[in-house]
Amino acid sequence: MAGFLLYFILIAMIPLWAQMKVKNTYTKYSKVASATGLTGAQVARRILDDNGLHHVDVVETRGVLSDHYNPKSKTVNLSSHNYHGHSIAGTAVAAHEVGHAIQDGQNYAFLRFRHAIVPAANIGSNFAWIAIMIGFFTQISGMFLLGIILMSLTVIFQLVTLPVEFNASSRAMDQVVALGIIRNDEEREAKKVLNAAALTYVAAAAVAVIELLRLILIFTGMQRND
Question: For this UniProt entry, which segments traverse the membrane (predicted)?
Fold first, then answer.
């Protein structure tokens, strides 16, 4: 019993720690003004235009750290603080989201694959635990296995997300350095913001994989009991 409690505390703490890390890092560097004084919106527009993505719009969106790229509407959506602000954090976040726009424009394979498996991943996230719970309490191994298969779809999505996010950050750093948007020590500070944000995806993937492995072990135990 103690082992199970420790396990659930562990998988709960990993994403919480990652979220606290990104929040603290973002808060710190959102107070540090960039040397160029460019707003997040200006940073995004400049990188987009330099890459020939004139058709991609930069729009303001509500919320905190709600920044994202929408491939359907072809828009880089920046939260108000990043859209209007001129901080190192806002610069890094804006450049990262434009990194996704560049991926989209260049048909980046991992991004295309992630988009393609979204419907399957949604089905998995909605129905996996239903099948698992039914299979566990009825001891119907086939139903439990179905739940594992459905959950594996969401795990695949989480794993594919990692190269997409890391690649977007890499593109972001290349762009802001090449265009002179950040200078000197600002590069190190921008990397800290991007690395902290990446931790949330790594944590989510790690928890998903650990949980999937646990369920596979339970399934093998059910098979032996049969």
Answer: 116-137, 144-164, 198-220
